[in-house]
Amino acid sequence: MELISHYLREGGFLVSNAINAKDAMSRIQESLPDLIVTDVVMPGMSGFELCRSLKRNAATATIPIVICSSKDQEIDRLWALKQGAAVYVTKPFTRQQLLDVVQSILT
């Protein structure tokens, strides 16, 4: 996630990092972001579970979520979308690919 944060900062975005899904949930509740980017694999809770949790909460349900993963299977992409993700991005990706995805969601 460090590289993703770096790419987003270079793209002019204000980024808040979390060390795990529990930390992310806390930060999101404190200050609702315009967009959430998460990895699938995290300690304690997967990115899929985080996404599902956020989408079930009225306060966070409308925040777009980008899920990043090294898994390139169609079933993983479909599962992410079913959990409420706006986009499923497969690693590796370029800085420009990530920025294009984020811009397309925010505009």
Commentary on this structure:
The chain is α/β, with parallel strands linked by helices and 107 residues long. The chain has a single domain, classed as 3-Layer(aba) Sandwich (Rossmann fold), CATH 3.40.50.2300. 48% of the residues lie in helices and 12% in strands. It has five helices and three strands. It has helices at 2-10, 21-30, 47-56, 74-83, 95-106, and strands spanning 36-39, 65-69, 87-90. The protein has a three-stranded parallel β-sheet with strand order 1-2-3, sandwiched between helices. Helix 4 (74-83) links the parallel strand 2 and strand 3. The longest helix is centred in the C-terminal third of the chain and has 12 residues, at 95-106. The chain is globular, with a radius of gyration of 13 Å. The mean pLDDT is 96.
Output the structural class: alpha/beta
Span between N and C termini?
23 Å
Number of strands: 3
Series of secondary-structure elements, N-terminal to C-terminal: HHEHEHEH
Unreliable stretches: none
Note the overall shape: globular
State Rg: 13 Å
Placed side by side, the strands forming the largest sheet appear as 1-2-3
Number of helices: 5
Percentage of residues in strands: 5-15%
Q: Which CATH class?
A: Alpha Beta
The CATH superfamily label reads Response regulator
**What is the helix fraction of residues, given as a range?**
40-55%
**CATH architectural grouping:** 3-Layer(aba) Sandwich
Looking at the structure, the CATH topology is: Rossmann fold
For the sheet with most strands, the description reads: 3 strands, parallel
Number of domains: 1
Mean pLDDT: 96
